[in-house]
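Before relying on records like the one below, remember that each one covers exactly one chain. Contacts with other chains, cofactors or solvent are not represented anywhere in the record.
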Amino acid sequence: MNILFVCSRNKWRSRTAETIYKNQGTHNFKSAGTENSARIRVNLEHINWADIIFVMEKKHKQRIQKKFDLNLRDYNFVILDIEDNYQYMDEGLIQILKDSVDPYL
């Protein structure tokens, strides 16, 4: 299964998620951001690659839909509701991600 994590700038939340899951071995993981200043900007190739798209906030799903003019029924989005209050690899963020994402894996 291909899993994409998305936040705004791909510096803290989505990047942390990719880092903690990428060596798991059972699935493929990538991360990207919705902003022009993102470390890795989300593109249509990412969206089409992913079986599940975990977005940190509802606004990320909305930005993706608007940018790529998507019919969202064709994609599997999960809104994690994780606000931008964490640094990269913050222990609290890691725990929230594991509690939120693990049931889908």
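The domain at 2-104 is CATH 3.40.50.2300 (Rossmann fold).
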